[in-house]
Amino acid sequence: MANDPKKIRFAKNGALYIAPAPVEGGTGGTVPPTALGDGKTPPAGYKALGYADESGVTLTPAVESQPVPAWQSAVPVLYNVTSSSFSVKATLIETNELTTELFFGAQWYEVMNAENKPTGVYRLDLSSNPTFSEISLVVDWNQGGILYRCVIPRVTVSDRGAIQLSRTEAGKFELTMEALDFKGNLGYVLTNDDITKTA
Known about the structure:
- The structure is a single chain.
- By secondary structure, the chain is mainly beta.
- The protein has one domain.
- It has one helix and ten strands.
- The strands form two sheets. Strands 1, 2, 3, 4, 7, 8, 9 and 10 form an eight-stranded antiparallel sheet that branches. The protein has a two-stranded antiparallel ribbon with strand order 5-6.
- The longest helix has 8 residues, at 97-104.
- It is globular.
């Protein structure tokens, strides 16, 4: 039934989880979850990215098309799909190994001294010839007991925002991730909401 205020949804809580991207045809890699989960626990093999800022997460599905005109019509007679995409944008505010490695596109390692002993200092090298790495992404959000989960088996970081170092504001890692094809799909959404029920 339309005009039902009980059907208005808010994402009052949520989380982002990442794992190595699955390998098509391979074994022993990440298996994207097919269960909805409990809204609190990371899927098997995934790790939480931590706090995001108050703007939450933006999911953007997009389809680009090209009109097909015909001599016999003043308007297009058909639209042909030329591309599709699904992007996820979030600004992470928790500084940890996962968020910083994802943002900078490189891994931390501990610096050793002349005697090859750990120094307690960690280094991350910014490559002059970076490559796009792939990960698997899960976005959970909920309103009470109503749970949603968006699973994107393969994504890559397509854009990064600037980090502002400020005395009065937390450091932020702004990331945009684009879905990649996986077995003919970009991803899928799971929910326990009574989304298909009608009165």
